[in-house]
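Need the bound structure for zinc ion, inputs here:
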Amino acid sequence: MSLEQLINNYKDEIVQKTQELIKIRSVEEEGKPGMPFGEGPNEALEYALKLSEELGFKTENFDGYAGHADLGEGEETIGVLVHLDVVPEGEGWTYPPYAAEIHNDKIYGRGTIDDKGPAIAALYAMKAIKESGLSLNKKIRIIFGTNEESGWGGVKYYFDKVKAPNMAFTPDAEFPVIHGEKGISIFKLKKSFENQCNGDIKIKSIKGGNRPNMVPDSCTAVLEANGELHDDMKDALSDFVSKTGYKITLEQGDNEVVVRSEGVSAHGSLPQSGKNAVSQLLQFLGSAIECEGDMMDFIKVYNDKIGMEYNGQSIGCGLEDDVSGKLTFNVGVIDMDETQAEVVVNIRYPIKHELEKIYNGIRKELDGTNIELEEGTDMKPIYVPKDHPLVSKLMKVYREVTGDEETEPITIGGGTYARALDNAVAFGPLFPGQEELAHQKDEYIEIESLIKNALIYAKALYELAK
Ligand SMILES: [Zn+2]
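Answer from helper R.:
Posting the output first, comments after.
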């Protein structure tokens, strides 16, 4: 039988097994003996391995951290990396998050698209290859991770013990193929203040944002000022607001003025899609407050070197390359009081550049300002060229099954599970134009998409392993 026919025959079973897996609430909890990420993730792992055995595959469980299911033999291995853990369900669901109810040909529930539906689709893809009698030269291995959502400890443990596949894909993002991911770094810019502002208005604090990888949508400054100054500021503000269109408001308290800036939140890899509330507020304070001192110097440098830019061009790191485009620069958090300022920055740097060069560029721009760069994390870029067989074969299968000849492989600023491996790319499960509901309420997968995923994976695995 052809792979198409087989996958079609498995349709009800794929739906049913996806539903069963969704019903296991596999949110990370405190570890227990043999269950490093708690009972839920462990139960999901055991479920997947038991199902794999029932489908006729050899399995192994690596102390509850991860597991795998194998088909065939060969010196080389083609891998599929999936994960069985989920983020907490949150609130506001139309249908219960762990009931896996079907409405309008969609399965609803936490983990349906991220990443349990794709995990089951990959298993049945491997089953179809087994039953088709097609011959393979390489081994196919599905690797089940158990804490993708909270630190990747599962796959780290696993890859310390097991040789990584020669090539792999992870159905944990979108189609067609994500063949490159920028480098990601989170670092801090810090300055301590030796002296106070010498003007009539004193800035007591500025606080905004709470996560480096989000564009902050709110920022608040508390100023010490009397009533008269408040009126001056009101005028300055209405000028500023009419010029910029930013949402900034003033509120008078006892000898205190609270200035609030409202921005638009967005993912830290897409700062251009948001409006940074911190940067808006600092621009206003820089234009409205007249004083001298360390604090004001800090605000001036911020406005000169960062301002409303999101590609780091004025702060010495406006780099780009031909495969992944421009560096993105997002100020995610500010925490400033009368003694110090700390800004947390999240950059996504182009694949062909190195973080060291970026740090050096920033340090050079900040020379003489007493603002220090405190180095942080570095998730190195990954890249598989478009003409690499992994990418070209996956693209061929994707085009064949979907008829989509237009969409090209992409590179992104985000990080996918593919980073856990060399020679790996993200491939599915979301099709171009589909709504992205991973980590949100009412997460679902369309049954038709789920089955199409299984067929694409079956053909892709055969192409790679034949
Ligand atoms: Zn995921």
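Comments: The pocket of zinc ion is lined by residues 83, 114-115, 148, 172 (CB under 6 Å). The first helix runs from residue 3 to 9.
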